[in-house]
Specification:
Elements: E1 5-11, E2 15-22, E3 25-35, H1 38-51, E4 59-62
Parallel strand pairs: 1-4
Antiparallel strand pairs: 1-2, 2-3
Length: 63
C-alpha cells in the first residue's frame, strides 16, 4: 500500500496555515503560516520538502 504525506491548508486573504502529517508517524505534526503571495507559496513548498523524504508524488494536498 502506498504511504502518503498529508498536507492540510487553511486559506485566508493575507495568509494561509499549513499542517503536515506523515502516515508513518502520526504523532509528529508540523505547522506553519505563510503569506498568500508568490514568495509565500515558494516558502511553503520548501518547508514541506524539509518535513519529509517522501517524493512529491506521494504528497496529498487538502485545502
Amino acid at each position: 500500500m502506498k504511504k502518503e504525506l498529508f498536507i492540510g491548508i487553511d486559506f485566508s486573504k493575507k495568509t494561509f496555515d499549513a499542517t503536515v502529517i506523515d502516515e508513518d508517524d502520526l504523532d509528529k505534526v508540523s505547522y506553519a503560516e505563510f503569506e498568500s503571495t508568490r514568495d509565500g507559496c515558494i516558502a511553503f513548498l520548501k518547508w514541506v520538502k524539509r518535513q519529509t523524504r517522501r517524493p512529491a508524488g506521494s504528497w496529498l494536498f487538502c485545502g
